[in-house]
Amino acid sequence: MSATASALYLDLLASAEGVDGKTEMASAIARAAVSRVMHGRGALHVRRPVVLQAAGLRWYVPARDNSFASTKPGHDNNSVMPELRRLLRARPQPACIDIGANLGFVSVPLAHEHPDRCFVAIEPVPWLADAIERTAQLNHLGNLTVVARALANTDSIELAIPTVGGVHLTTLSSAAGQASPEAKGRTLSRCAVRAITLDAVLRELALDPRDVSCVKIDVEGLEPEVLATGATALSARPPVLFEALGAEGRERTEHVLRGFGYTKFRALDAQNFAAE
């Protein structure tokens, strides 16, 4: 963790509010966490849940998880957010699907910016899905629906979540046996979660595939397997923005999407791509 990232997190913690009547001394935990990280002994986190202010929104941050320290919420950390905003302006369909939503870094700001649209945030890690729900409530986002499930062709899967000093590095989580390169060699915490197909998600939400404006997916290398569960959901070929970890990952994802009728592919940046 760089000094710049540590300083950013310290600034975010300056806005920390207590949860459930407990007071969190932001400066104290920031100094302790930053010290540990800078000496290679941990990952930035909070010891108890807090609510932080960032980009004009209130964010619920779960304890002992480094997700909030992994990005700058509400800002364009890569090319995905600008492209999603462009698509939402250009396309009239009402729904946007965020697969691998983490803490809602994509779906929460967009739901705030587009109260006339509906957003579906799909996140399998239980405490992250709960955090998105709480963040949506804090910001009165009635147009954001959270699906606390993994996407797979089975009833359940086991997630492997790397840990450092008891802190979950959920940004590196994956299905057990398919760890991302960054997660290899780390201690893993295992978590069984319920699974559902993307097609079944749309059926449960009574969402017509023709009403899907765009799809964003970031699931640590499992994009091909996850998208393969959505043949009907993607039948109207909404633009799909996907992350790919290397050339092989991009080729595998594009192969699945070509099977669904997608013909145009382009790079948004080194790791993110668009399909139409």
TrEMBL record:
Limits of the Methyltransferase FkbM domain: 98-248
Q: Which Pfam families match?
A: Methyltransf_21 (PF05050)
What domain of life? Bacteria
InterPro entries per the record? FkbM_mtfrase, SAM-dependent_MTase, SAM-dependent_MTases_sf
A GO term, aspect molecular function: methyltransferase activity
What keywords sit in the KW lines?
Methyltransferase, Transferase
**Span of the signal peptide:** none
- Single GO BP term: methylation
The answer to keyword Metal-binding applying to this record is no
**Protein known as:** FkbM family methyltransferase
